[in-house]
């Protein structure tokens, strides 16, 4: 059926050179999450990639040519459904359109796999929310950066006032995929890591910065030194500038105090991993510049995107960190980055952070990072632990013990007990991969296993039973202990402090506008009292963690959509619909009897957004997209072209709630048998 859809759509869009999203009624729909790596572009009926079968040769997020076509992979110039001209509604939805496994030739960050190979990615996994012992960076846009552990809890945020962005603050920024990654590869960082993470480049904007003249062989150029008094081409101790839109106005170069023009008076190049200024005309004695410094991260990546689908050999993709990991993580988890803590300043490496109170926003004793791990190097592979390789030495980083994206029990099974990493498989054997504490905290192994991997207290304590005859040796717990915490409610304004965007959206919903007892955060997310003390998923139960039947049942509570105080609309319903919409049945019963529920396994939040509204035909709806666009996500609407109207199949049904208010919900079974088929032929 999907290929019939292709043919109908292509007849419409071929003459427009694939210029627009698919139109459904009055609305434009998101690009269908469909992809076939056959080197034939069916955009906008499938996700567009310039090189479908080998994206490693055409990196859509970097290395743009002058005639690039990469923009069309994410943006729609005149018919976008998301802000910043995105083809999907949010940044998260845009990233996951490809990186949830839909595009089989790139990274699947949802499952944490390289393409279709099954090899674990080096960043970990985000999951879908129901995986055992899952923890992840919450990149859905639900929190602000100041919620980061080790971040600025003071409420007094560092500010900036720069030519391109105007005034703003660090920390008070929505956290999402784009917080850590630059989708356009700005700054040239490895893994397209964001050079301006948490507004780093804006807060550290340089003005009238003196450049250093360097001569190497026959080449003379100027650099802005990031450290020291002379340039070291091996250490690359020069700033890389974040340039191009939206960093144009603030990037200026002056010869002896006079502003000059790029391409006429000088050449600016970032190709070497730092910024070089080469004079094209003139002979300046001094060069100064204003620029946005990049937070630089470097890695050595071999066999890029090669998951080695067959032999699982070491020739598949490998990643070795080289520079900047601690500083990058520390841009948000500032107090946890101890690579600049020195108890003994005479030593060349950071030291003593576990013996010396330290931290910018909070004081505590903390584990050291940034030191040479030579004493522990041989043990790191046992738990698949990483390091940063610089100057021939290996240094501890945040990612020695943690994954960047997240972990779950299934990811540990791949990395610790699977065949991908032999040392780890030998070390772990059949040990249970169970997180006792409740939150896996992005750790590379469960519980405190990363500590034990290096510190080896188990071997150190051997002989206890021999020296204590008759005693019974203790055993570590091997089963999970569910955290016990009071389900106390807190004022919703406490939720707002971290989840401002979601809270503001919720205020516009009917849930928030109910008279009397509103449906608020803690009706769907319990455990607020402890969660505000320790912002961890271990102290928060979410409705999304339930299976689809339980989620619908939650909404069908007696005081919610399970009430039986319904009224019929004055319209010609068929007998099937009328049988569900009368005063003796609950609002939710018709949905439970529909194909949406029984075939599609759809919950209320499959389509509805409890955290915000959209406007459609002068009305507001708690929906994720425009109504027609939502239908097009799953159903083949090609035969309707622009004539489809969702209300012809799911007409509004005014229903009276317990409080007497009348809400226009909709039918699920009216004309259900005539509704267009699923895009997925398996349905």
Automatic annotation (TrEMBL):
Pfam families: Paired_CXXCH_1. Gene3D superfamilies: 1.10.287.3080. Residues 458-477 are annotated as: Disordered. Keywords: Signal. One of its GO terms (molecular function) is oxidoreductase activity. Residues 464-477 have a biased composition (Polar residues). Residues 68-101, 596-636 form the Doubled CXXCH motif domain. Residues 1-19 form the signal peptide. It comes from the Bacteria. InterPro entries: Multihaem_cyt_sf, Multiheme_Cytochr_ET, Paired_CXXCH_1. This is Doubled CXXCH motif domain-containing protein.
């Amino acid at each position: 059926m999907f290929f019939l859809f292709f043919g109908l759509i292509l007849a419409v869009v071929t003459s427009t050179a694939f210029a627009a999203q698919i139109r459904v009624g009055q609305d434009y729909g998101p690009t269908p999450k469909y992809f076939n790596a056959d080197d034939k572009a069916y955009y906008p009926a499938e996700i567009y990639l310039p090189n479908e079968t080998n994206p490693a040769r055409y990196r859509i997020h970097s290395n743009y040519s002058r005639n690039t076509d990469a923009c069309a992979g994410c943006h729609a110039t005149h018919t976008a459904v998301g802000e910043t001209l995105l083809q999907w509604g949010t940044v998260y939805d845009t990233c996951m359109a490809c990186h949830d496994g839909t595009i089989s030739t790139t990274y699947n960050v949802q499952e944490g796999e390289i393409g279709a190979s099954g090899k674990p990615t080096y960043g970990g996994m985000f999951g879908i929310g129901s995986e055992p012992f899952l923890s992840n960076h919450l990149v859905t846009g639900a929190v602000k950066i100041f919620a980061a552990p080790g971040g600025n809890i003071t409420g007094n945020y560092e500010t900036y006032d720069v030519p391109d962005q105007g005034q703003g603050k660090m920390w008070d920024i929505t956290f999402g995929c784009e917080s850590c990654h630059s989708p356009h590869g700005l700054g040239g960082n490895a893994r397209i890591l964001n050079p301006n993470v948490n507004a780093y480049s804006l807060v550290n904007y340089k003005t009238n910065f003196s450049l250093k003249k360097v001569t190497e062989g026959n080449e003379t150029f100027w650099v802005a030194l990031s450290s020291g008094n002379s340039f070291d081409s091996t250490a690359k101790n020069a700033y890389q500038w974040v340039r191009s839109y939206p960093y144009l106005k603030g990037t200026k170069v002056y010869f002896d105090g006079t502003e000059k023009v790029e391409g006429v008076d000088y050449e600016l190049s970032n190709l070497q991993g730092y910024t070089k200024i080469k004079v094209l005309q003139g002979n300046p004695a001094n060069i100064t510049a204003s620029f946005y410094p990049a937070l630089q991260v470097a890695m050595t990546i071999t066999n890029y995107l090669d998951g080695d689908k067959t032999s699982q050999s070491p020739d598949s993709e490998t990643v070795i960190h080289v520079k900047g990991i601690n500083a990058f993580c520390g841009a948000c988890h500032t107090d946890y980055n101890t690579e600049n803590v020195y108890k003994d300043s005479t030593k060349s490496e950071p030291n003593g952070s576990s013996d010396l109170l330290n931290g910018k926003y909070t004081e505590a004793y903390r584990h050291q990072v940034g030191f040479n791990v030579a004493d522990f190097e041989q043990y790191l592979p046992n738990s698949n632990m990483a390091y940063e390789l610089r100057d021939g030495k290996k240094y501890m980083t945040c990612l020695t013990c943690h994954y960047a994206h997240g972990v779950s029990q299934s990811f540990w099974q791949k990395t610790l007990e699977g065949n991908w990493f032999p040392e780890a498989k030998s070390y772990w054997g059949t040990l249970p991969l169970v997180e006792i504490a409740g939150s896996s905290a992005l750790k590379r192994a469960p519980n405190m296993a990363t500590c034990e991997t290096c510190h080896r207290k188990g071997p150190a304590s051997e002989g206890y039973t021999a020296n204590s005859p008759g005693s019974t040796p203790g055993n570590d717990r091997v089963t999970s202990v569910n955290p016990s915490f009071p389900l106390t409610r807190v004022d919703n304004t406490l939720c707002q402090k971290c989840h401002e965007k979601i809270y503001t959206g919720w205020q516009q919903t009917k849930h928030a506008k109910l008279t009397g007892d509103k449906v608020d955060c803690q009706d769907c997310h319990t455990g607020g009292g402890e969660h505000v003390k320790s912002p961890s998923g271990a102290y928060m139960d979410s409705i999304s963690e339930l299976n689809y039947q339980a989620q619908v049942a939650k909404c069908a509570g007696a005081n919610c959509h399970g009430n039986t105080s319904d009224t019929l609309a004055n319209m010609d319903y068929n007998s099937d619909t009328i049988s569900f919409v009368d005063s003796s049945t609950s609002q939710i019963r018709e949905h439970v009897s529909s194909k949406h529920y029984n075939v599609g396994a759809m919950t209320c939040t499959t389509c509805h957004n409890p955290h915000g509204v959209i406007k459609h035909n002068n009305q507001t709806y708690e929906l994720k997209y425009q109504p027609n666009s939502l239908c097009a996500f799953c159903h083949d609407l090609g035969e309707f072209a622009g004539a489809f109207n969702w209300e012809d199949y799911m007409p509004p049904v005014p229903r009276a709630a317990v409080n007497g208010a009348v809400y226009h919900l909709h039918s699920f079974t009216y004309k259900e048998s005539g509704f267009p088929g699923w895009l997925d032929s398996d349905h």
